[in-house]
Amino acid sequence: MKNLILKLFLCIFFIFFFNKIIFAQNIYVDLELVLAVDVSSSVDEEEYQLQIRGVGAAFRHPDIIAAIESTGGNGIAVAMVQWSDNEEQALVGGWHIIKDAADAAEYARIIRRSPRIIAGGQTSIAGALTFSIDQINNNNIDSSRKVIDVSGDGRANNGVHPMKIRDIALDQNITINGLVIINEEPFLDGYFERGVIGGRGGFMMVAEDYRDYAAMILQKLLREIGMPVS
Amino acid sequence: MKTQIHKLLLLFYLIFIIFSNVFAADYPYVKKKAEILKVGTVEEKISAVQELGRLSSNANFVIPELIYSLRNDDSHDVKMEIIRALERIGGQANATVPALIEALGNDDWQIRWAAAGALTSFGKKSAMAVPELITLLRDSNEYVKNAAISTLGKMGPISVAAMMDELYKSLDYADDQLYVQILCTRALGALGSKAMIAVPLLVENSRHDNAIIRLESVIALRKIGGDDAMPGEIGWLAEPDEMIWPKGSRNEGNFLMFAEAKQMVIYTIVKTLLFSISDPDPKVSYSAIKGLANFGNKALPVKDQLVNYMNRGTPIMRRVAIDVLSNIGDEADDVIPDFVTALSDFDVNVQWAAIQALRIKGKKAVPELIYMLEYDDDGLTGNILKAFSEIGNEAKGAINILLVMLQHDNASYRALAAEALGEIGEPSLLVIDSLNNIKKDNDNNVVRSAEWSLKELNRIFEEQDTNR
Q1: Which domain holds residue B444?
Q2: Any B CB within 8 A of A109 CB
Q3: Within a domain: residue B64?
Q4: Residue A97: is it exposed, middle or buried by C-beta count within 10 angstroms (0-12/13-18/19+)?
Q5: Do the domain assignments include residue B291?
Q6: Is the complex ipTM more than 0.85?
Q7: Which of A100, A101, A214 sits opposite B352 (nearest CB)?
Q8: What is the mean pLDDT of each run of 10 residues along chain B (468 residues)?
Q9: CATH 3.30.420.100 fits A29-225, yes or no
Q10: Contacts of A53 in chain B (CB under 8 A)
C-alpha cells in the first residue's frame, strides 16, 4: 500500500514537472517587435488615428507580408504599446504571431480598431522603454532579434533620461529604433539619435508630421522585419 | 474582536511610521543627501544627486550645495548628474541659471550640452542665457549646437529678437552664418505663434536668393501659421513681453482684436505659401504645398494647381497635393473622382493618401467608389474596398455591392469585402447570412475576415439590443 502511494505520488510529481516544462516552453519567432506609439497630450485624436491606421495599412502591404514570409517559417511576434508619462503605458491587444497574409490582415484589423487607452499626459520615453522591455522579457516568446520601435513627437519631460533605459535594453540585446515626428520640435531627431536609439542595426527615421507617418512606418517596418542594416 | 482591531491599527501605525521615515523628503533627509556631495565616493555622490533630482522641488533648499559641487567637483559624471538634477528641481532660478550659464563655457562638450538642455526648464527666467546660447550656435560640437537651438526654440518670445538679429546678418558675416541662420529659422518655427513678429522677415526670406533659406523660411512660416494657440488671454497685461506675443489660448472669440490680427498674419503666410508653390526649387515648392494642408479652405485659390500636381507631380508631390485637397472641405468635393483615380497610383503612399482623403470625404465619396468598383479594375478594386473599410459606417450605401463582391473570383477581394461589411457595421440578416456562407471559403484569409466581421456585427447587434 505504501509502495502504491509512493508510486502515485511520483507519478503525479512527474506529470506536474513535465507539464511545467511543456507549458513553460517558449514559442520561437524570427523577430520580437514592440511598436511603442506616443499618445501623450501633444497627440490629438486625428494624429492618433493617422498612427494606428498607418500601422494597420503597413501590415497589409505585400512587401511586408513577403518579408514576414521570408523569415524562415517562424514568423514575427508583434505588440503595440501606447505610452505617455512615466505611469502611463498600455499593451494594446497583446502579442500576435504573424506568419502569413491572413495573420497580418487580422493584426491590421486589431490595430485599426484599437481604442486610445491613454488619454494623454506628459512624455516619458524612459517609461515607454522600460514597459516595452518588460513586455519582451515576459511574453514567453524567444527570438534572435528583439526590437523596440518607439515613435514620438517630443523630448522626455517626465521620468528618468531615456539614455539610461536605452543602455539597459542594449545590455539585454534589444535594439531600439526611432520614428521621430518633428512637427513640434524641429531638432528632435538629434535628441533621439543621441539618447534613445541604439543596438545592433539601430536606426531612426524622421517624419515631418503625422501625415507622413504611414509612409515612414512602412519603410521602417520593412527595414526592421528584413535583416538589420547598420 | 477588539484585540484584532487593535492589532490591525498597530500594523497600520507601524507601516505608516516606516513609510513616513523611509520616503519622507523632509529637511534632515534632503540635507543628509546633500552632505554626501562633500564626503561621498563618486558612486555615492551620483546616487545622492539622482535622489535629489527625483525629489524635484522638495530639494529646492540644497540648490546652493549642488551649484557648489557643479563648480568644484572633479568628477565629470557627478557634474552631469548635478546638471540633470538642477533641471528637474527647476528652482532658485536666480542662482541656478547663472551657474548653468557658467557651465555653458565648460571645456567639456557634454557639460555644455547638458547645461544648454537644462536651461529649457527655466523658461523666461533663463532670458539672461540668450546671448550665450546664441554663441553656442557656433560651437564646435554638433550636439551642443542642437541643444542650444532647441532651448532657444522653447524659450518663448525672449529669444525671438536675438534669433532675428542673426537672420538680418548677411550670409558672408561668418563662415557658418548660413548654418546659424538655418538653426535660427527652425527655432523661430518651433516657437509657433510666439514668433509672430518674425513673420515679415521670414516672408522676405522666402524670396531669398539662397534656396535653403527660402526652404527653411517657408517651413517656419507654415509652423507659425499652423500653430493652434490663438492669442487672447489677459496675461499679457501683467507681463510686458507678452504684449507683443500674447499668451496662447484657444478661446478665439473673447478678444476679437487679437483674433483679427492672427487672421491677418495667417492671410500673409498663406499668400506667401501660394506664391512659393511656383518656386523653382522642388523642395521649396513641396514644402509650400505641404504647409497649405494646415490652412483648410484657404488653399482654394490654388485648387486647380494642386489637382495638376496630384495628377502629374512626383510621388511625394502627388501625395501632399492629395493631403491639401482633402482638407479644403466642401469646396473641393468635385475632386473626389480624382481621389478615386489616385487609388490606382503606382506609389503605395499616394494610394494611402487617397484612401485617407476619401475617408475624410466620407459618405460623399461612396457613390463614386461604387461606380468605379463596377469596372472591376485590378488596379482599383482592392483599394476601393479598403476605402470602404476606412469610411466605416458612412459607407452603408455600398453594402449591396459588397455582398456581390463576396462572390468575386479573387480571394483577397472577398476578404476585403467581408472586412468592409464588418467595418460598416450594419448587422442585417442578409449581411450576417452572407458572411456565414463564406465561412466555408477555401481561403483562410477570407474565412478569418468573415469571422472577424461576424464578431463585430454580433457585438453591434447586442449593443443595439441592450439600448432597445
Answers
A1: 406-468
A2: yes
A3: no
A4: middle
A5: no
A6: no
A7: A214
A8: 67 58 65 85 89 82 90 90 86 87 91 89 82 88 84 80 89 86 89 86 94 95 76 36 40 52 81 91 92 85 88 89 92 94 93 95 96 91 96 95 95 95 93 94 94 93 81
A9: no
A10: 356, 390
